[in-house]
Amino acid sequence: MIRRWGEARRDRLLAVLTATFACSYVAAARGIEDSLLADAVGAGGVPQGVGWLMLVAAVALFAKSFRGHAVADGGDEARGPSWQATAMRTGGLVAILAAYGLLLPRLGYPLTISLLVLASGWLAGATLRAPLLLCAAVSGPLLWAMFDLALQVRMPVGSLWAA
Questions:
Q1: How far apart are the C-alpha atoms of 5 and 21, rounded to whole Å?
Q2: Do 123 and 96 contact (CB within 8 A), yes or no?
Q3: Residue 46 half-sphere exposure toward CB, CA atoms < 13 A
Q4: Domain map of the chain by residue range?
Q5: What confidence tier does 99 reach under pLDDT thresholds 50, 70, 90?
Q6: What is the DSSP letter of 77?
Q7: Cβ atoms of 29 and 73 closer than 8 Å
Q8: What is the mean pLDDT of the chain?
Q9: What percent of the chain has pLDDT over 70?
Q10: What is the DSSP string of 2-67?
Q11: Residue among 124, 126, 128, 97 at smallest CA distance from 113
Q12: Cα 82 to chain center, whole Å?
């Protein structure tokens, strides 16, 4: 008899593994030495932030795993999407990221980030309505301001807009 892992148990295992990785990532990022040209954030600032964000996501996933999972009456629907649907969605995300990489030098960071958020949100199943459009419209300029203005990490404006 084959015993299958439930969705909650898989989420908990993934959360524990992710938290372990995040902690080791933060520890490694703290070991990055600053050069003489380092700014206030330092060479390890962004990697540490990413590690802490991973840890927060792992804790949220672990907490979410204790909520009841809805069970569909339709048999196949209860098991989740098929491997073909997952492969198509993964391929779509790879195509979106490739388009982002190709468009970034031409359109610049703010516009391509907004398009990336819009396309990946739509791919994830969000409808093209006000919440997704507002999120996409705000995310590009907000992230550009955070990196370019606040952190002094210059982001490309794009050759299409450059004078």
A1: 22
A2: yes
A3: 9
A4: 1-68, 82-163
A5: confident
A6: G
A7: no
A8: 78
A9: 77
A10: PPPPPHHHHHHHHHHHHHHHHHHHHHHHHTPPP-TT--SS-TTHHHHHHHHHHHHHHHHHHHHTTS
A11: 97
A12: 23
Supply 60's token pair: 């949220």
Alpha carbon distance 151, 69 (integer Å): 41
DSSP letter at 79 equals G
- Tokens for 13? 């295992």
List all residues 6 or more positions away from 36 whose beta carbon is below 8 Å from its beta carbon: none
H or E stretch covering 90: helix 83-107
d(CA 155, CA 111): 12
| Nearest one of 155, 63, 64, 70 to 108, comparing CA atoms | 155
Residue with tokens 């550009």: 144
Predicted TM-score (pTM) of this structure: 0.51
Highest averaged pLDDT of the listed ranges 7-11, 58-62, 75-79, 108-112: 58-62
Amino acid in position 92: G
Return d(Cα 56, Cα 44) in angstroms, integer.
18
